[in-house]
User: Which sequence fits this backbone?
């Protein structure tokens, strides 16, 4: 079967007559909002996707879904989203909280949380099991956010590695805890060793995330890692960006019913 020649994907500016002024104003407002939101994400770091058990770094799937990393730190977090999840319209959580760096459960909502649900995490109804919209879990889900760089044997190359962020799913926290307990028994911090990070298929949760400690870093690489610790810790505590569209929605056609407002993450 003959194939069609691929069409160019170059963006061609729309003619003024093709786009109503009110619609163009909405797009410009959205562009301004996204530009401000991008600034809050922090330069030089990327968030790693684990969707479906596929580890995606820099938009590419990691071969074999395993890689070697140097974990610079972590923070225990809670996040509550009002409404149903919609992957096509991601938003930040309505309420969230961080624990202390490298240990400690979240206690109170972050000062930048959009809609704080309670004075304390312990007293919040959404932190209780059975509060989730589906299942018997918590509506305000627990997780662990990890900061890391990909491992390299050459100190100079290691120094050039950007800092990545990754969320450990609730079903995998127990595996991270076992990994931390193993290192703790040896008197080692996560940033002192290479760690193999990988996923495994799981019949109940689709996949689980695992950590396996490797050999300790040599003195030269430890010096490089030490220079990245402050930056990593700062990024771990960055507030979630508010990327919610601020422009007014288009006016519904006459006689059309309103769909109602829903919030997504």
Assistant:
């Amino acid at each position: 079967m003959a194939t069609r020649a691929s069409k160019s994907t170059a963006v061609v500016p729309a003619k003024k007559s093709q786009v109503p002024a009110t619609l163009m104003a909405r797009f410009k407002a959205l562009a301004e909002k996204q530009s401000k939101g991008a600034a809050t994400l922090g330069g030089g770091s990327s968030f790693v996707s684990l969707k479906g058990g596929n580890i995606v770094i820099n938009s590419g799937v990691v071969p074999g879904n395993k890689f070697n990393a140097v974990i610079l730190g972590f923070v225990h977090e809670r996040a509550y989203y009002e409404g149903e999840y919609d992957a096509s319209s991601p938003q930040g959580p309505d309420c969230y909280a961080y624990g202390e760096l490298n240990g400690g459960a979240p206690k109170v909502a972050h000062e930048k949380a959009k809609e704080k649900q309670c004075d304390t995490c312990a007293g919040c109804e959404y932190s209780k099991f059975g509060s989730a919209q589906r299942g018997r879990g918590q509506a305000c889900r627990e997780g662990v956010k990890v900061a890391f760089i990909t491992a390299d044997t050459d100190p100079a190359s290691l120094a050039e590695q950007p800092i990545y962020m990754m969320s450990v799913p609730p079903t995998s926290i127990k595996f991270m805890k076992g990994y931390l307990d193993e290192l703790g028994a040896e008197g080692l911090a996560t940033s002192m060793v290479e760690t193999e990070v990988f996923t495994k298929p799981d019949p109940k949760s689709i996949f689980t995330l695992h950590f396996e400690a490797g050999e300790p870093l040599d003195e030269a690489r430890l010096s490089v890692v030490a220079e990245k610790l402050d930056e990593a810790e700062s990024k771990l505590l960055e507030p979630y960006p508010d990327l919610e569209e601020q422009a007014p929605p288009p006016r519904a056609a006459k006689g059309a019913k309103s769909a109602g407002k829903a919030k997504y993450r």
